[in-house]
Here is the input.
Amino acid sequence: MTEARVPAVDKRRAILEAAIRVFARQGYHATRVSDIADEAGVAYGLVYHYFRSKEAVMTELFTERWSLLLAASDALYERDIPAREKLDGIAGFIIDSYKHDPELMKVIIIEVTRAANSFGATHLPEIRRAYDVVAKIVADGQREGLYRAEVDPDFVAMWFYGAIEQLLSGWVFGLMPATDEEFDRARVMVVETLCLGLERRGPG
Amino acid sequence: MTEARVPAVDKRRAILEAAIRVFARQGYHATRVSDIADEAGVAYGLVYHYFRSKEAVMTELFTERWSLLLAASDALYERDIPAREKLDGIAGFIIDSYKHDPELMKVIIIEVTRAANSFGATHLPEIRRAYDVVAKIVADGQREGLYRAEVDPDFVAMWFYGAIEQLLSGWVFGLMPATDEEFDRARVMVVETLCLGLERRGPG
Amino acid sequence: MTEARVPAVDKRRAILEAAIRVFARQGYHATRVSDIADEAGVAYGLVYHYFRSKEAVMTELFTERWSLLLAASDALYERDIPAREKLDGIAGFIIDSYKHDPELMKVIIIEVTRAANSFGATHLPEIRRAYDVVAKIVADGQREGLYRAEVDPDFVAMWFYGAIEQLLSGWVFGLMPATDEEFDRARVMVVETLCLGLERRGPG
Amino acid sequence: MTEARVPAVDKRRAILEAAIRVFARQGYHATRVSDIADEAGVAYGLVYHYFRSKEAVMTELFTERWSLLLAASDALYERDIPAREKLDGIAGFIIDSYKHDPELMKVIIIEVTRAANSFGATHLPEIRRAYDVVAKIVADGQREGLYRAEVDPDFVAMWFYGAIEQLLSGWVFGLMPATDEEFDRARVMVVETLCLGLERRGPG
DNA sequence: GATGAATGAGCGTTCATTCAT
DNA sequence: AATGAATGAACGCTCATTCAT
Here is the structure.
């Protein structure tokens, strides 16, 4: 039968997408489960039919997206390209994710990744996995004699993510201009400056 | 030198210091006012005798410390020293603050500076002021022909703080080894790498 | 006649009726929300499911009843009967309300109508509307030459309600015998005495 | 040295007078003990030095004034003057009290006399004593054949006070114009109308 | 007498979660 | 699947009263 108008008859999906909007708008703590249901246009109880808890909604949102980043990072790492391009690929993936769905990325960065006291703690393993790829890229670069040996790769990884997340925060909260050109400039700047900072100098 | 510690007769001070410990241990949201009172060894109501609200306690903690950072940044900025030393001074101030009172810095970084949805929003002006000093240092460096002109100073400032706060987070949550030597290494690495990344290369 | 009582399946109604009993027994300020819930035999939170606040419960109680008085007053005013009968109708309506549901009327008189500092202030407009009808009746009586012209109608209205509410108070607090005969006697006495006091005397 | 400027060096008195102002302004429930102390310009604890409790302050305010009314009523009752003049004397005393110190009378009427659930209950005996004098006057009037026999004297007393207090309320809350002429008119109207309503008619 | 710090019981409200239908 | 009524623990805040000085 026809009724083809609404493709998203999938209420579970509707709830997830409503959650993105509401979490982005009000923050996780400030949103009540009823807000999600209202935004999704479904009954209160249905949220609990599909999800164990409010936290489970957030977790699914995070995991779904973060696993893409992990997969992309892993794929990049495996490719036979210069370290710089790998880092650029990761930065690009994150920034493109933001361009593509800023609300979701806002939620992930603000409520999970940088919320070390709440979801950050819960999802620490997955978060570290992303850091580790960066660290491995840097370590490889050092092994190749490309990067200075005295910088700790783990340390660089923290730095890399700290910087990028801070930029996203800046865009999210209007501290920095958020246009597509800015996003691309930022990507170049981060990678360029970081790599220049890491590279070994001169023949000496 | 002896640093004459006030014998905690001052209950207001005792409350503030108890709050640092409890906020650091449990996070702001998870600490009840009674936790603070208990930790301070005072009656529940006394917290409200000295502070308008739980939030006011947090605010005082943040403001007290952050104003020191602001003052130090301003002083550094005024001094007639190379840009690199200024940045090093700021990084050093933050890291020393952490060495000196890790719990307080944990609270400030985790609950305010990186909590863009709650206290971060409230204290945005003061937070930005700290960023601005870094941006000005970078801009000066550019004007002097020291730093590459194509990097946006505001952008570098975000980066700088994003990176340092991420490092603090790493220490706080045990993602990175947290010893005094590590702190000092980190300081050197951050500033060294950032400056190298920013510097213009010679004609050669 | 049967007066088909709703079998208190309606929990919202149960809460309202419990509130009447508890407010009447303890007074508004002295009743905790949990008292209402307990009296109604429902969970604490259900009160807040149906009402925004404790005050909202009181407001609904008052408004529901007072609007009946207003409607009755208006209807009486419109009818083509002597002023005295109109006043008698109003007095009768109030007193019958008390006979019918003394607890509710106690709450309304004690906690709202005579509580000028709390609910009285909030509901002043509705309260005044009731006074105004009496004033209009008196003014009409004066225009017809029935009542002495030198008495201010607004003034009489205040008096009328002040007196009647005082009588209700007296019954409520056991200062006066409260039997059905007393109620009817009181009604007669108030209206009789007031009207005699207002009437113009013959030339004789 | 002289310091004769402030006659009210009596801090106890200052507290009482401050309480009148604050109770009148905010109502008893809404005033905190600290409000009284602040208004009086004395230390918090001093209120408790002179008074057992917040309630005790209110009680003293009420008792002090109400005993004057009682004394005046008794005196009036004893005098060899017509009933009407006695009633007029009582109404006059109350209204003059209001003219003389509206804030105090506001507090007494609003917070005690008409607050049957709180102070009204506590001071019921004294309040009734005032009513009783009126009742006795009416009863005497009936015995003299002046007043209709079918009205219950207690009932008239309730009415009398209910009406007068309602008028005071009206003035206090701006429902009626409150000028000195109005006060005097009101006094005349109340007594005139009440007595006309009570008087026996007819040739006899 | 005078001060104001210290105490702690009390209460309104919120909201995640469960459950009956 | 879908609904929304029902539950109750939890917590921030107020403020009368006490107490040490």
